[in-house]
Structures are given as structure tokens and as C-alpha cells.
Cation/H+ antiporter
Amino acid sequence: MSDLLVRVGHVAAVLAVVLVAAYLGRRAARAARQPEVIGEILAGILVVPAVLAIGGPDGLARVLPGDVVGPLKTLGQVGLVLFLVGVAHELRHGKSGLGAKAVGWVTAGSFVPALLAGLGMAAWVLLAADPDLRGTAPAPALVLMVAVALSVTAVPVLARILEDRRMVDSPSGKLSMAAAVVTDSVAWVLLVVAVGISGGVLVSLALLAVGVAVTVVGRILLRGKTPMAAAERFPKSTGLAVSALALLLAFQFEHWGLTAVFGAFVVGLALPAGPWTTVVRPVTNLGRLLVPVFFVVAGMGVANAPRAAVPWAAILIALALAVVGKIGGGYLGTRLAGQDRRTALTVGVLMNTRGLTEIVVLQAGYSAGLLSVQLFLALVVMALVTTAMTGPLLSLIERRARVSAAATRELVPDLPGGRP
């Protein structure tokens, strides 16, 4: 009994340290005018390397022994699943208010070139890179995994950036959010297929069909008068039920060979709008609180990579292809949608935001054995850098637009009647 209490106290102490580190990371990111999730990710990932640097392997073993890491990993997965229920719900019910043709062009532009860029990087990893970077994953699964990694856009982070910069109702904000919703929906499906390939394509397709069936049936049942009334009258109790169901499905799908992400998405997509949005909100907030623990587990994988094996070439190639695929592709798609150059460039920069969504995708691939430690590290750095680029690039675009407008006013004199 005393050993159990000591272990629980140890887990609670580590959890408290992680949450404090995440809070400090958010404050630091806010001070640097970066999305808060950047600070959370860095704080979580750097906890383990910091302990390792200070105390060495023995110190890390004392701070994070195996009987503590296990509960922490479970807590991180619980936080991730609950958070992704809200993400899936947002993907299902987000609306742009724009024409389908415009959204279609932007979606194609921001997804297809990025997917092709990922295929190009996967080809380099398979054909020219070091065997340690390639790992032991089946080639089809690795190719699809890397392609998904370069095509993702982080809807939650994107939404926060648009809100902070008051761009939610702007053409660039509406187009980027609508395109991100579609691209991420496709990317999650491809991720499930990539993870499931190692367990058999037919099994993966069968489980996908089961998930789709559960989603459709769930939506029909939850739209009934009794469930809607329960969600409206008892949001807390209903939220607990939703959380339990999401965790049950997530861990069951993971047991069957898919990623736990799929179970979370099945529940999030099944929940209708209306009072269910109020139910989902606290579920998502609890998940967001625990997600930094997930980053600590990810940091343990990064810490295991020897310094001499840091894949600088892979990092640079991933960065170059990610930026070209998203910013270049987003710009092209938005121009084809009939928007001006400034809007097109803004959309491209916004679509280059990867944030938490990318880390989740990478951790799923790493846990399934599709990514080696070195390739996982390279893609994590790519995700952080591309997300950190968003704010400064948007500020640069706005500054150039103001300078251009001022120059135009100086060159074009005012005409009688106050019109230029």
C-alpha cells in the first residue's frame, strides 16, 4: 500500500512539474508573439532532455522510472484523445461561408502539392538517405506517413491565430480555415491507413468501415429528442459519458492495430451541433490541460537520439519541401480561386501552420514504428519551425501592404470631391 502511495505521489509530482513547464512555455510563447502551443510543445519535449543533461541517465531513471512513465504515457494519451474529440467536432461543423469552387481550388492547392512534396521526401529517404533514417517500416507505410506529415495543417492553432489577429471574417481567414478542415480530414484518414498497413490493408479497411458506421449511426441516434434534451439539461454528466466512450473506442481501435486518434475522431464526428457543442467544450479543455504530458512522452523519444545522429540534411529537406508545398501550393490554389496576390500569399502562410496536429501525427507514426527516431526528430523540427514562421510572415505581409498603400496615396493625388 505504501509503495502504491509513493508511486502515485511520484506521478502527481511529475505531472505538476509538466503542467508548470507548459504554463511557463505558454507565457514565453506569448511574450515572443508566437502561438501558445509552440511554447507547450517545446516545454514538454525539452523536459526529458533537460533532466538528462542535469542528472545524466541515472538522474533520468530516478525522476522517470518505468513505473512512472507508464501512467504518464496513459495520461498523455487520455489528454490527446479528449482534445481530439473537440478537434473532430470542429472539423465536422466548421463553415466558411464561401463558394464551393473557391474552397475547392484552395484545398487542392494547399493539399496536393504538399502531398507530392511528402512523396518526394519519402523517395529520398528510401533511395538516398542513411539506413538509420529510413528505419524498418514497410515502404508503402513509410511513403504514406511522410506524405501525410507534410500535408497537414493544424486547425486548432490556425483558428487561434485567426482569432488573435482578427482575421476570422477576412477572405484569407475563411479560405484557409475551410481548406484546412478538408485537408486535415483527408490527412487523418490517410494516417489511419498508413498505421494500419503494417497490420494488413484489408483489416485496416474493415476497421475504417466500422468507424464510419459507428459515426453515421451515432449521428442519427444523438439527433433524437431524448439525447438532445439530455445534452442540454445535463451537460456535465453527458460530457463524462462522451469522454468515457471516446476513451473506450480510442484504446479499442489501438488494440485492433489502428491509432487511438481514430477512435477519438469517430466520437467527435458523431456528435451533432447544438447543445452537443456545449458538452464537447469542457471535454476538449480537459484534454488540452493534459496534452503537455503527451509531449513529455514524445520528448523521451527525441532524447534517445544520439547527438551525432541529428539528421541535419533531413531537417533542411523537410523544411524546404514543407514550405514550398504549403505556401507555394496555397498561393497557387488561392490565385486560381480568383483572389488577389496578398490574399493568396496570406492563405499560403496560414496553411503552413502545423503545430499540435503535426506532432500528434508524427507521434502516431513513431509509436507504430513507421518513423525512425532520426526521421521523427527531423519532422518535429520542421513542424515547430513552420508554425513559428507564421506570425512573423503575416506581420511582414501586413507591413508591406501598409507601405504599398502609403506609396500609392503619395503617388495618386486626391481629386475634387475627395475621391482618389
About this structure: The radius of gyration is 22 Å. The CA atoms of residues 285 and 351 lie 24 Å apart. The chain has a mean pLDDT of 85. Residues 95-289+306-400 form one domain.
